[in-house]
Specification:
- Chain A is an alpha/beta fold.
- Chain A has 20 helices and 23 strands.
- In chain A, strand 6, helix 6 and strand 7 form a beta-alpha-beta unit.
- The two termini of chain A are about 30 Å apart.
- By secondary structure, chain B is of the alpha/beta class.
- Chain B is built from 8 helices and 6 strands.
- Chain B starts with a strand and ends with a helix.
- Classes of the chains: A alpha/beta, B alpha/beta.
- Chains A and B meet through strand 1, strand 8, helix 9, helix 12 and strand 21 of A and helix 1, strand 2, helix 2, helix 3 and helix 4 of B.
- Strand 8 of chain A pairs antiparallel with strand 2 of chain B, so a sheet runs across the interface.
């Protein structure tokens, strides 16, 4: 495994997320926790792969790692370890910090003894997220020191040094990344690996118990810590000025990946500017910022999403009484929306400096290209569940959905995703819709989502006897984010055997009186189960159990079994379009003369199209 | 290396675009060349359009500015056209010729343009090289080496800052020993398809 090489000075190619894991290993991390979510997943997946690699050889990986049930629990486990003096890292996607925020806000009051990095992976442009919230606000909100890397190598260094900063301050710190850092590969210079400590020591102290009197005593300590952090920020190697061209009174303030674009565009436009790159962006190094402002008559603030640096710099300039012209979001030169890129920065700079933008996009072609929205995979058991649910009640149904592959049920021809907010929201909104409307409600969530935050709304539904059908799509994995285990699997993130928690048993314990457990590939039985659930007055749950087809086929291939693909008998096919127009498997397509065919490269051999074909025209073709 | 080399890799989720970009990245690090590779993960992979970028040399970030690609390497014809904004007249547009029809076309909501039209259009934008990767891969001995054919073609386009054999060496490290000769042949067929 290249990532665990202990060869200081050697350079290897790593993904930004892998670089963060490597940085933690170089800092001798003891405990790593997560709930997986794009774009953060590979940080934890790398810990998982390393742990499995060692455990397979009956060796000690040196650290403890787990995929926790949700981000809040992940933060609590790592937080308690850090309170006990160990080094800990907790990684999550940006919205995960919302889930962990209750813990986070008070954890900031009491702090930690071992270093603790909380990695928040933000997703400007919502590449794979339900919003593009700017978690730099969490640094200001909770009072957490924050590091923002621009490149994978910097991410590794910030992680490694971040533990030292956290320990100096006796406070957890945020490492804030964005997708264009997490999912960028670049050259990483390896440093020496440190051995983890492993055994922590929890020293009992009333200060750890945040009753109101203690909270009142701790809040001033948090503010004091931030003062010390500001001093660290003044002297941080991560805050620096980079001069491009000749000395001038033009300054650019930036952080994170935006720095990359600013530097390159300033060079390409041959500008004379000084760039203040803020790698430790909370708390701001106020003295450094003041000195920078004094050198400038014009300041451009380049930051994706919210005007956080912009607002703070305006306050500092006001305090200084300096007359500086700002070019930023409020002046209309930059947007608070989406992700930046070199073109956006070049366009803004060319307007500000009245120079020509050197990047000329080739004009868009007049040829209209077909869109390629992501779709449920061929053979996905969710499609069968959707098909059966729709068959049970074709009209007047609202389908609240949830975060996971099943959001793809929104696409034609299924169109069975009507309302989505966040992890676990399907069941809560289902009950609200049952209260508010006279429609039937069938909601959908995955098994990992159920464990994450879907259980409380199920209890709430049962307790209030809301008339809803809550479907749990149990494919035995966290599929969308990369097939991580969860409490419903019989192994954990280190590859060790684990207690498997049964979804329907949990639902029974939640007080649900009508529970149907089905195999969605038996479409007829599944349809009947949905009918019974719909007829039941009150809360019913349908647990639809079938493994993710990608995992199932991978295991089949490993075992040396063949995947049998299907084909359509053109003699028997009546072109009724049930398979293509109602079931909607992406492996099925129109051939010449309205014929309907199955792409054998794409077919995963679930056979559900054969089941639903009214003319029995689909059958197993041959071995693939 | 003072200059900048920008390569856009395009295709459809599952075609191995990310792996191809990764191999170029590893090769650059081995050659001591500064490199950034951007990838797409998560939801974008489920059959969606995939665009990775590889930047080599004096670059400070992974994203390619418009009109500055030295090459567009596309595993699917229409996907080369989708990211054509990266191109200029000198851009080497190297594309596989086999279309992958999205399900939106299968359901009748969208149309896949005539292939000939796509190729004619690509010729207007830059230097077009069409590669029948499936045919060459089968000729080499295995369809699965399609992407190695495409990387061979890229190596034949005279834009990479390392020798073709150096890239081939990294590719061969990443395939099982018994497939070495097949992959070598696939690379060479790809290379020769452009070089002539």
């Amino acid at each position: 495994m290249e990532i665990i090489k202990d060869k200081p000075g050697e350079k290897i190619l790593l993904l930004g997320n892998e670089a963060i894991t490597r940085g933690a290993l170089e800092a001798g991390v003891d405990v790593a926790t997560t709930y997986p979510g794009t774009p953060a997943s590979e940080i934890a997946d790398t810990f998982s792969a390393i742990a499995k690699y060692f455990i397979k050889q009956k060796k000690d990986p040196g650290f403890y790692f787990e995929y926790s049930i949700n981000e809040k629990v992940a933060l609590e486990i790592a937080g308690a370890a850090a309170i006990s003096g160990l080094r800990a890292i907790t990684s999550m996607k940006h919205v995960g910090l919302n889930v962990a925020s209750d813990t986070y806000m008070t954890y900031m009051y009491i702090g930690c003894r071992g270093g603790h990095l909380i990695v928040t992976a933000d997703d400007p442009y919502c590449h794979s997220s339900q919003n593009e919230q700017d978690n730099r606000y969490y640094a200001l909100f909770g009072g957490a020191p924050m590091l923002e890397p621009s490149t994978p190598n910097e991410a590794k260094e910030m992680t490694r040094i971040g533990f030292e900063i956290s320990e100096k301050l006796q406070s957890p710190i945020l490492l804030r990344t964005t997708t264009r850092l997490n999912h960028v590969r670049s050259s990483i210079e390896l440093k020496k690996m440190q051995k983890p400590k492993r055994i922590g020591n929890f020293e009992k102290n009333p200060m750890w118990v945040t009753t109101p009197d203690i909270a009142r005593a701790r809040h001033p300590e948090l503010l004091k810590m931030l003062k010390v952090a500001e001093e660290l920020s003044e002297n941080s190697e991560f805050n620096k000025i980079i001069n491009i061209g000749k000395s001038s009174d033009w300054g650019v303030v930036t952080s994170g990946v935006s720095f990359n674009y600013v530097k390159e565009v300033a060079e390409d436009l041959k500008l004379d500017v000084r760039i203040l790159k803020l790698g430790m962006s909370n708390p701001l190094p106020k003295k450094m910022c003041k000195n920078f402002i004094k050198l400038c008559k014009n300041i451009i603030v380049v930051e994706e999403l919210e005007p956080i640096l912009e607002n703070q710099f305006k306050v500092i300039a006001y305090e200084l009484g300096e007359k500086v012209k700002f070019y930023d979001k409020s002046s209309g030169h930059f947007s608070s929306l989406f992700e930046y890129n070199p073109d956006i920065i070049a366009e803004a700079f060319s307007k500000i400096f009245k120079v020509k933008n050197p990047y000329i996009a080739a004009k868009t072609s007049d040829i209209k290209l077909p869109i390629r929205p992501p779709a449920l995979c061929p053979g996905c058991p969710h499609r069968a569940t959707y098909f059966a649910a729709k068959k049970a009640q074709p009209k007047d149904v609202i389908y609240p959905t949830d975060i996971g592959c099943y959001t793809l049920g929104r696409a034609k021809p299924l169109e069975m995703a009507d309302l989505l907010l966040c992890m676990g929201s399907n069941a809560g909104t289902a009950c609200g819709l049952a209260v508010a409307t006279d429609k039937k409600i069938i909601s959908f969530m995955g098994d990992s989502t159920f464990f994450h935050s879907g259980i409380p709304p199920v209890i709430n539904a049962a307790h209030h006897n809301h008339d809803v059908v809550i479907t749990i799509l149990d494919n035995r994995t966290t599929a969308m984010t990369g097939h991580q285990p969860h409490p419903g699997t019989d192994f954990d993130g280190m590859g060790r055997p684990a207690k498997k928690i049964i979804v329907e048993d949990v639902c029974k314990g939640c007080g649900v009186e009508h529970i149907e457990v089905v195999d969605p590939n038996r479409i007829k039985e599944t349809t009947e189960a949905f009918k019974r659930a719909l007829n039941f007055k009150g809360t019913s749950v349908v647990v639809s159990k079938s493994p993710c087809i990608l995992l199932e086929n991978r295991d089949k291939i490993k075992r040396g079994e063949k995947i049998l693909v299907y084909q359509i008998d053109q003699e028997k096919c009546q072109r009724c379009k049930t398979c293509i127009g109602r079931f909607g498997c992406p492996a099925i397509y129109f051939g010449k003369d309205e014929s309907i065919l199955i792409d054998e490269q794409q077919c995963n051999g679930c056979g559900n199209c054969a089941t639903i074909c009214p003319f029995i025209a689909i059958h197993i073709q041959e071995e693939k | 290396m003072k200059e900048k080399i920008n390569i856009a890799l395009t295709g459809v989720g599952g075609q191995g675009v990310v792996t191809a970009a990764n191999i170029l990245g590893i090769t650059a690090v081995r050659a001591g060349i500064n490199v950034f590779v951007s990838e797409v993960h998560g939801m974008a992979q489920r059959g969606g359009s995939v665009n990775c970028t590889v930047r080599l040399g004096d670059v400070s970030g992974p994203l390619i500015p418009n009109g500055t690609a030295n090459a567009i390497l596309s595993m699917e014809p229409s996907e080369a056209l989708r990211y054509i904004r990266y191109s200029n007249k000198k851009t080497k547009i190297i594309t596989d010729i086999v279309p992958i029809i999205p399900f939106t076309v299968a359901t009748g909501d969208e149309k896949y343009p005539e292939l000939k039209k796509i190729f004619n259009e690509l010729e207007n934008y830059g230097e077009l090289y069409k590669v029948d990767a499936a045919k060459l891969a089968n000729e080499a001995g295995a369809l699965i080496t399609k992407n190695v054919v495409m990387l061979g073609a890229l190596a034949g386009a005279d834009i990479l800052p390392f020798k073709p054999d150096f890239l081939l060496g990294v590719i061969l490290e990443n395939v099982p020993n018994e497939y070495t000769s097949i992959n070598k042949k696939a690379f060479e067929l790809g290379f020769n398809s452009i070089k002539k």
